[in-house]
Amino acid sequence: MENSGTINLDESNFDREINSDKPVLVDFWAEWCGPCKLIAPLLDEIAREKADAVKVAKVNVDHNQSLSFKYNIRAIPSLLFFKNGQLRDQVTGMTSKKDLLSRIEALA
Predict the structure, then answer these.
(1) Could you report the per-residue pLDDT of 47-85, keeping only the tens digit for each?
(2) Which is it for strands 7-9 and 24-29: parallel, antiparallel or unpaired?
(3) Domain with residues 7-107, CATH architecture
(4) pTM for this one?
(5) Nearest of 92, 102, 97 to residue 36 by alpha carbon
(6) Is 36 labeled as catalytic in the residue annotation?
């Protein structure tokens, strides 16, 4: 799941990265999660195509349990949308690229 324009987040860089002037889409995922693997290519496309408009980041829930707890992640994939460091929107489970893009645009 490493590649494209996505950023890997952990406890050490999470707050710094979500405090951004552009919207930040954070994917809470795990290696063993089938739906996470299905949505990953969509997120990679968005990271490449919309690099000037949005930051796409990933949090491995197995390695960052305190972040999962802080944001009440109970199912994955969970996609959290931040603007200026504030949580503004959230999607749990699979969704379409069109839905993700419209949620990002709503934050712009």
Answers:
(1) 999 999 999 999 999 999 999 999 999 999 999 999 999
(2) unpaired
(3) 3-Layer(aba) Sandwich (3.40)
(4) 0.94
(5) 92
(6) yes
